[in-house]
Amino acid sequence: MRDFLLGAFNLRKLQGLCVNTALGNFVGYIAGSLVTLLTTYHTVERRGLRNLYGILPRHTIVVHRLPQWLEWALSILLGYLVMEFVRYIFRAYRQLSSPDHATRARDLRSGHPDTGG
Description:
Blueprint: H1 2-8, H2 11-38, E1 40-44, E2 60-64, H3 68-96, H4 99-110
């Protein structure tokens, strides 16, 4: 049991997990924020009773092109999909760079397939 724990929780694996999670979450957050950025715009308030027909300074207001609930749902969905895509890329890269994968590929090229496992 001790050997399993030492092999499973070594510093390199924990660093890889932290980097993978942090990068995936960050890229997912950026993608979700991009949805909000693309579906809103800023405009200047028109003259009206609120600003005494132009006597008071006009304020910048945010206009949403989509309903806020739809914008929120799209940003969460897109952020989640991008986060999982980044994790998938990391997992595929880790499998391609593993020494076990290189050994199997070399055996297959030389005509000696792995009979175990």
